[in-house]
Amino acid sequence: MKQRILRFQLVETLSRIWPYLKPEWRRLLLVAAMTLGLTVVEVSVPILVGIFVDSLLSELSGRQPTTMAPVLNNRTILVLLAVGALLRGYLLYQQRSLSGRIGQRVAARMRDAVWVHLQEVPLDYARRRGPGRLLVRFISDTKAVQRLVSQGMVQLIQDVLFVIGAIAVLTYLNLVVGLGTTLLLPLIALVFWRINPRVQQASRDTRNRRTRLSAHLNERLTGLAVVKIHGRQREEAKRVRKLNRNVASRGARLATAGGQLQGASAATVALVTALTLGLAAEEVAAGRLSAGYLVTSYALIGLLAPVVQRITIFNRTLQEAQISIERLAQTLAEDPESPQEEEFPEVDVSEGLVSVEGASFSYPDGTQALEDVSLTARRGELVALVGPNGAGKSTLLELLPRFRQPTNGRIMIDGQNIADVSLESLRSKIGFVTQDTPLFDGTIAENVTYGVRGNASEEQIQQAARLAGVDELVASLPEGWETKVREGRRMLSRGQRQRVVLARALAADPSIIVLDEVGSGLDIETQQTLSEQLRVLAQHKTVIVATHSMPAMLMADRVYRIDRGRIVEEDHDAMLTRLEGT
Questions:
Q1: Which positions ≥6 away from 190 have C-beta within 8 Å?
Q2: Residue 335 in contact with residue 30, Cβ under 8 Å?
Q3: At 566, which helix (H) or strand (E)?
Q4: Global pTM?
Q5: Which CATH number fits domain 18-332: 2.30.110.10, 1.10.10.10, 1.20.1560.10, 3.20.20.30?
Q6: Which of 111, 226, 311, 357 is most exposed, with minimal Cβ within 10 Å?
Q7: Which CATH architecture has domain 343-581?
């Protein structure tokens, strides 16, 4: 851990966020100018107060002023102090305003980069992480970086400049006092060296526990109906209470470590202050330091205490940002699905012949989901995949648009290996619909046309609506195509929502339609209607459907039965006879 301190975390952190910070270099220069001006004003105030004290004592005693600026009278000094106060307020306003904009822009660029990259990485990555953890990275982690840039970093630079300026002034006024104050720097560095590793570890543990709690709550809120129907409220309350206690426990450790750092820093500053003031008093007694400069020295040394406190607080901001940047970097380091997309040719679908040849698939933990699967689907026929849950139907369908990559075998479309074609062109030819494909916040029209590339004709959209049965749905709604739909708002029934989802896939005019259990949970009449629509679709396109629906099986030209990842039966008539008899 101490090796990380040796690498100077701030430099390492800034090097990682520099690509997002670089476009703001003009504003950064303005912030630097404002910060330098603030430092000059803040250091000047104690000097002017010291001159004022010396001038006042000289007037009272009738002696010649001993300060370096005897030309300043008391009224002029008071005017300068008032001007300094106004100037400080203006510079502080401009500094915080500019730094706030910079922080917001940096966070926005990072969110853009993360979102763009998340759309390029394999779908399995998002599934493994889950929406809760990814939302934490997208929102909370970028927020931590924004705080570092807009608040912590600027304040740190200002405080460091003040420390340098104060020590320089104290050394100029009196070498002994300046050297005594300089002792503060190595002592504070030693305090950080000893305690900071505990702060960093406690901060990391707290963030990890917070992320786990957030992910758990996101998952349970999504499935709140499942929790209620199974009466698991008490168990879930206990689970959340345990996660909550873990967060509180790690947070208490962080507060303890942070308190130790702040306490040790405050004690160090107090000791150095006492030592420096003792040296200053001796210098005054020896006549080498005036009373006014003693006041200046005391004021500057007194101002160092809150500065050091702010630096310790900044350390916590830095630790949180460092953890966030590491997690964002991990996400951005994930390899995209097709890193050399521009080198692959576009897929050419003319006949619509899909051939799965000896395909196998295993999960990263070694579990085999598919083994030596082969099947064929052609334009003009409806192909159904049947089998129990967990048999591998969904996994097989996800190989077609390359959501997953087969570990063995290959998949051909009109004689072209889909592994050797452009991923974007491949997916543009496939309409992929699952039973839980969501509708997005917007109107029915916006959802149906979501996947349309370029300018689709009105006839194309209307035909998709007719084939999916959305035209009848729209005609029955008061607001028609402008009816608002949103996930979680049950204005449409499940069957109606699936029609809109199917119309969205068809409006893009794909050559191949892949449907995964879209009829699951629908009543028999709706299943029958959907199966008839699929039968019509299959006259013009290659249609592959994984289903438990008897109507869809009866309408199919060919039925493949899958069990434990293997094709175990392909005799359509015999299979249907057996299924009807069960």
A1: none
A2: no
A3: strand 566-569
A4: 0.72
A5: 1.20.1560.10
A6: 226
A7: 3-Layer(aba) Sandwich (3.40)
